[in-house]
Amino acid sequence: MPRGAYTPAVTIKSTRGRALVRSAVEAVPAAAAMLATDRIVAQFTDVPGNRWLTLGLGAAGLGCFVLRRRWPVAALWGLAAVLGALPAAGLPAAVAAYGVGRRVGGRVAGRVPCRPLVLGAAVVLPVLTALPDPRLGVVLSAVAVAGPGLVGTVTGQQDRLVVALRDRAEAAADASRLAERARIAAEMHDLIGHRLSLVSLYAGGLELALGKRAPELRDDAVRLRGATREALDELGGVLGVLGPLDGSPTDTTGLRADIGTLTEASASAGARARLEWTGPDLTDASPMVRRALHRVVREALTNAHRYAPGAAVTVHVNVDEHRVRVRVCNTRPTGAPAPAGTGRGLAGIRERVALLGGEVRTGATEDGGFAVRADLPLAASAPRPAGGAAVSESAQPRWLRPAAGVLGLAVVAGMLVLGLRYAYLPPAPAAREDAGSVRLGMTRAEVVSVVGVDSGAARAAAVGHAPPRPAGTSCLYPYPSAPSAPGRGGRLTLARYCFTDGRLTGIDFFDVPMEAG
Fold first, then answer.
1. 8-state DSSP, 395
2. Could you give phi then psi for residue 244, rounded to 5 degrees?
3. CB-based contact 68:99 (threshold 8 Å)
4. Tens-place pLDDT, residues 25-51
5. From CA 476, how far away is CA 465, in angstroms rounded?
6. Which residues span the membrane (predicted)?
7. Is 139 helix (H, G, I), strand (E, B) or coil?
8. Distance CA 165, CA 170 (A)
C-alpha cells in the first residue's frame, strides 16, 4: 500500500486525544502562574478593575496558551494583546514567544524573514494595549516577549546548525562511500573488463579463422563472441551502479543555480533543454531534499538524452511553503533511441525520494514524450538507521533541556517581578510639586499622572492614623512626601485620594509618626 494512502481512524482519534490531554495538563501550571502573578501585581497597586473583564482576559490568554502548538503565531499575538491589559499573562506569553522564536521560520513574499515580523508585532502589542501607561507596556514587552523571543531564536538557530552539521557529515560519509565504490569500479574495469575485451578479440579472430578452415565450428565461435559482448554489457551495468556520480554533493547542490547548471549542460550537449522555476530558492531546505532534487533532475535529463534524442526537454520546479515538485518532460524523439536499459536509475531515485516521504511517478505523455514527476516534502527528516536505532541530537542528558526550561522560566518570573515593581514605582517627590493641581472630579488616571500610583508602604503606614474611609469608595495612597519634621520623632505627611465610580470625591492629608532610628 502506498505511503499515506490510508491512515486508520483509531490512530487519528488517539493522537487527538493525547493532544487534548497534553493541552489540559499544560493549562494547569499556566493558570497557576497567572494567579501567582496577579497576586504579585496586587501588592504593587490597588487599581480597581472589572472582575469579569479580568476573568475574560485570563480565559482568553489561557486559551491562546493551550493552542500555541497548533497556531503559534496567532496564539502569541493573542497573548501579547492580553498581556498589556493583564500583566498576569506574562509567563504564558514568555513560553509562547520562546516557541515562536525557536520554530517559526520561512519568508514573506520569498524575501522578508517571517520571524522578525512576527516577534516585532508581538513586541508592539503590549505597549498598545497597556495605554495610557506605556511604561508598563514597555516593561512587559521587553521581559515577557522580546527576551524569550530572542532566546528562542538563538536556540532554534543552534538546533538548525546541529542538523545542518549532521547532514554535512552524512554527505561526507556518502562521498567517502562513493569514492570507495568508484575505486572498486575502476579496478574491475581495468582487470575484468580488459580480460573480457581480450576474450572478445580472440573470439573474433577465431571466428574468421574457422570460417575458412572449419566452417562447422564457426557458429560456436560466434556464440562465444556474443556471450563475451553480453558479459561486457552486464559488467558496464554493474560498473554504472558502483561508479561515482557526476559531481559530489556540495552546499549549493539542489539550489536553483545548480539545477540551472544541469539544464545548461544538457543544452550545451545538443539537447533543447530549458528550466522553469516557480517559487523561492531552496536555501532553507534540508540538504537531503536538495540532493534528492538534484538526483531526480540529473537522472531524468540523462534518460532524455539516451532514449529521446532530438526531443525538447523542459524542467519544471515548483516550490511552495511545504513541498517542492519537479517535472522533467520531453517531447517525442526525432532520432533513434538507445536500447532499453536496466531501469536501475529510476529505481534508485524512487527509493531515495521514498525515504524522504516523497513520491516519484513516471510515464508517457499525450504527445508521445515521457515525463518524470517527483513530489518532495520540504520538512523531510533523515531516515533512521536500520534496526530502529535513533540518532541522538546530542550527547546531553535528557533532563538537561527541561531543567534549562524551568530555570529560564524562573529567571523570567524574577525579571517580571522586578519589571512590574519598576512600572508601578511612584515618581519621586520632586516630580509631584504640582500636587496642588489635583481637583475633585478628576479621573483616577489623571490623579495618578500627577501624584503617582499607589504605594504599599504608604498604605501600611496609614493603618490606624488615616480618617475613616467613606463608604463605597476606593482610595489611593501615593508615595509619601518628605517628613515635615525631619529627625528623631519626626512626622510624615501622607495623602489619601478617594474615588467613587472612577472620579475623585475626597482628598485627605494626615500625619503618621516616624519611628526613632
1. S
2. -75, 160
3. yes
4. 878 888 888 888 777 776 665 555 567
5. 15
6. 52-68, 74-100, 403-424
7. helix
8. 9
Q: Give 454's Cβ-side CA count (13 Å radius).
A: 20
Strand-pairing partners, residue 454, are 478
- d(C-alpha 208, C-alpha 201), whole Å: 11
Contacts 24+ apart (CB under 8 A), 332-337: 332/308, 332/367, 332/368, 332/369, 333/307, 333/308, 333/309, 334/309, 334/310, 335/309, 335/310, 336/309, 337/306, 337/307, 337/308, 337/309
Say if residue 431's pLDDT is above 50: no
| Type of residue numbered 180 | E
Q: Measured between alpha carbons, how far is residue 142 from residues 127, 132, 355, 416 in Å?
A: 10, 18, 44, 9
Could you tell me which residues are beta bridge partners of residue 272? Answer: 312
Structure confidence by residue, pLDDT tens digits, 316-358: 999 987 889 999 999 888 876 666 655 667 877 888 788 788 8
Query: ∠ CA 377-382-384 to the nearest 5 degrees?
Result: 130
pLDDT tens by residue, 181-212: 777 776 676 667 667 777 777 777 777 777 77
Q: What are residue 498's phi and psi, to 5 degrees? A: -105, 140
CB 330 within 8 A of CB 305: no
Residue 316: all three cell numbers together: 519544471
| 417: its cell numbers | 517581578
From residue 89, give the alpha-carbon distance in Å to each of 42, 61, 64, 78, 181: 14, 7, 10, 11, 60
Amino acid symbol at 186: A
Handedness of CA 144, 147, 151, 156 (dihedral sign): positive
How do 474-476 and 370-377 pair as beta strands?
unpaired
Integer Cα distance of 10 and 171 in angstroms: 39
- The rounded distance, in Å, linking the Cα atoms of 240 and 245 is 9
Going edge to edge, which strands form the sheet with 491-500? 474-476, 491-500, 503-513
Kindly give, in sequence order, each residue whose CB lies less than 8 Å from that of residue 370, ignoring residues fewer than 6 positions away: 303, 304, 307, 308, 329, 330, 362, 363, 364
CB atoms near residue 476 (< 10 Å): 23
Give, as one character, the DSSP assignment of residue 191: I
CA torsion 460-462-467-472 (nearest 10°) is -30
Helical (H) or strand (E) element with 312: strand 312-319
Domains of the chain: 14-243 (no CATH), 245-381 (3.30.565.10), 442-513 (no CATH)
Cis peptide bond N-terminal to 2, omega within 30? no
